[in-house]
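Readers of this paper often ask what the protein records in our data store actually look like. Such a record has a labelled line for the sequence and another for the backbone structure tokens. Nothing more is needed to write down the fold, since each code stands for a local backbone conformation. The remainder of this section carries one protein's record, kept here as part of the documentation.
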Amino acid sequence: MKETVTAESLHPAPGAEQYLALDLANSAVALPGGHRSDLLGTPGGAERWLADRGLAPADTGLLDMCATRLRSLRDHVRALLAAHVAGLPAPADALTAVNAALTRAPAASLLHWDPARGLYREASHPVTQIVEHALAVLAAGAADLLTGPDAERLTACGSSPCDRYLLRHGRRHWCSTRCGDRARAARAYARRTRPAAD
């Protein structure tokens, strides 16, 4: 039985565990056969994605408007990553969107007391402010990635149709073993079917 590939079934691309912004960029992925999978496609999916990364409580009650804003930031981060990988100037609208996300959230988590936990810091905001904080953290991660020492390792997956980004390690330029196998199989097929030179 053939395994169904979804964004959920893919392992994080190299670097995505270090940079949440890279994980955000890869939260929608092109799959073989012209299919797409989007972890942020619904408010529930977006809430799970944020909660799994510690960016929002699991019971946030994310609204469609908030999921749309998260997807919009993802699109802008992807535009910045694509421009960087291609050696092109950063798109002005993407810079504006990322900078807007950086400046909307409060800079500090508040200090709270709980008898079971003791003192702890946490943003305690309504849903829209929780999302503002998550967007700011993700935007800061994108800025850190694109301006830090790992920026030169940023690349796009070299296996079509995959459109994920990763941090290159050595010569590896695939986001997963599956993509590497698919690229090698495509090259082998091309060699076998290439017409012989006269």
Summary: Residues 64-86 form the longest helix (23 residues).
